[in-house]
Amino acid sequence: MKDFSIEDIKNNVSTKPLRSLGSNIVTHRLQKVKDGYAYKPTFLLVSAYLLMFLIGLVLVGYAIFKMVTTNSFSILEESYIMTGIGILFFIIGIYIVYSLFIPIKFDTSINRFYRSFNTNHKKKSAHFKDIVALQILGELVPNGESNENEYKSYEVNLVLQDGSRINLIDYTNLDSITKDTNTLSTFLNVPIWKV
Fold first, then answer.
1. 95 phi and psi, to 5 degrees?
2. 6 φψ region: left (φ > 0), alpha (ψ -120 to 50), beta (else)
3. Cα separation of 168 and 4, whole Å?
4. What are the residues whose beta carbons fall under 8 Å from the beta carbon of 125, sequence distance 6 or more?
5. Which value, in Å, is the radius of gyration of the alpha carbons in the chain?
6. DSSP sequence for 13-81
7. Which superkingdom heads the taxonomic lineage of this protein's source (predicted)?
8. Global confidence as pTM
9. Chain segment 51-76, per-residue pLDDT in tens
10. Positive/negative CA dihedral, 6, 10, 14, 16
């Protein structure tokens, strides 16, 4: 592998967002933990998705209760529709709650960053020594069918020695992004590249 200078990497690293359609809310907060820093999902976000999960569970439970107590299993009954909607909410809720708790951590006990349950995931982890910068990208994200409702979203990526990037986090609050990025820049002793 060829070694590049920081300037070479900075001049050649992609400035396109890694994740399109960034979040329009703060989904995670950076927290100091025993062995480094970690992004934890916000209470409001977890509550909203747990509510979706519970609504699905209640709809399925009610539909099954109604089918059993009335001994009616007609395919045209609303209980099947409620069961279908309930199952959809339940499955989406489980997936989203699961994805919220995927670790996003800078772990000093192993000197690695990872955004995965697998601390050595090839595309979602990096050794601290391989991180050369934090990149902040801004993008306009359409909100609905017309472009008049666009919102600004910011993405933070880790830039690695080979010029590749790993998405760290994205949301609309530039002050929170800047504060988190400054904390991590000091922690990792790397510069911040704003695009």
1. -60, -45
2. alpha
3. 23
4. 112, 113, 114, 115, 116, 118, 119, 166
5. 21
6. S--S-SSSS--SS--EEEEEETTEEEEEE-HHHHHHHHHHHHHHHHHHHHHHHHHHHHT---TTSHHHH
7. Bacteria
8. 0.77
9. 877 887 887 777 777 777 776 655 54
10. positive
